């Protein structure tokens, strides 16, 4: 197949051909073909792994300590790699999936008026001392000192930082409110026992949103809007979730809900009423409570993993930092706040945990790292002549379906059997979606030889 293609070698390193400019595909990783197409070749990108369970355990420095399914699968196929206890390298397929997840989150947050910010991870101790959380957070807060002896923590959450920021906006008017400010950044928590891979680690990505409203009523409305956006997100991802009432914990405030994905390895116990809409984290209930407080029917218990958390904060933080706005009467008034978290890396791992089989990764289709993969015949096989057709099919697909731009791989590792490459394809797509391509009547002979996978 290579003979047919002209590699873009004619151009100096920093120059780009028109295909590169239009698609931002790095020079080294693509071939230009006479028709002007572009092919993403698997042999030139990160290779999937096929590690055995014992290899995974030794990577993690564990002996016989059972890891959960998502952690094992993600390590086995090369989606993550351990860096230190509770810290992982996110490898290219995972980053693609995460970027897709962040895009879906951005859409949901922006529909309700969210504006994106980006705050430093390094958070000065004074901010946390002002709310007393420097002491309250205890050992979970990852603390450090700079060369001048000034104390910081690596932020696990940013209520202090954002409230101080809003307090610095001296001319804030009620007309500008509500403010819905959010970011997707790395967060840190000094977990005593990091485990379950990306489900409970020390460094992770979170989407955290902070809202500022001019009245408690408006803040309640914002609270419902954000909860609805979270429901919409999990529905779009095809993940079964429950929204339960929750404790406010160290964040504080007066009302809180968790978004939980029911699963056996979950660390929270949830009580759900099958007869009405009541559901709660068990820690909010009396130990002896067996019946639904709303309809008195019996409650069912299930385990879940928390993937989202919402808090109505009132003026708990705005009163400390004096985050004010000018109200409709021209007088200063404290902002009513809410804060809302989504565990971004946790959602990825939790989705794999609930959707995958024991030996095959399954992604939510919106997040699969690639949407399609073409697998040409093995080199030296009697179908080899059809390789050219596979390339053409690739070009047709990417040209005819603009949404597939950058989403289709050509698995040109033709020294491997189709079966082995199909097995690898589980790393970046949902194997349930295998479609053997239907070719024309004349190509019927070759019908079996293309494996087009995709949704
Ligand atoms: Zn009930």
How is this structure best described in words?
Pfam families: tRNA-synt_2b (PF00587). This is Probable proline--tRNA ligase, mitochondrial. The longest helix is centred in the middle third of the chain and has 22 residues. Helix content is 27%, strand content 25%. β19, α11 and β20 form a beta-alpha-beta unit. The N terminus and C terminus are likely disordered. With 455 residues, it is an alpha+beta fold. α3 crosses α10. Strands 5, 9, 10, 11, 12, 13, 14, 15 and 18 form a nine-stranded mixed beta sheet that branches. A six-stranded mixed beta sheet has the order 1-2-20-19-22-21, with helices on both faces. It is built from twelve helices and 22 strands. The structure holds zinc ion. Zinc ion (ZN) binds next to loops. The site of zinc ion has 8 residues, from loops.
Short description:
With 455 residues, this protein is α+β, with helices and mostly antiparallel strands.
What's the helix count?
Answer: 12
What would you report as the Rg, rounded to the nearest angstrom?
Answer: 26 Å
> Percentage of helical residues?
25-40%
On the 0 to 100 scale, the average pLDDT is 86
Features of this protein?
aa-tRNA-synth_II/BPL/LPL; proline-tRNA ligase activity; nucleotide-binding; alpha+beta; binds zinc ion; 455 residues; 12 helices; EC 6.1.1.15; six-stranded mixed sheet; 27% helix; nine-stranded mixed sheet
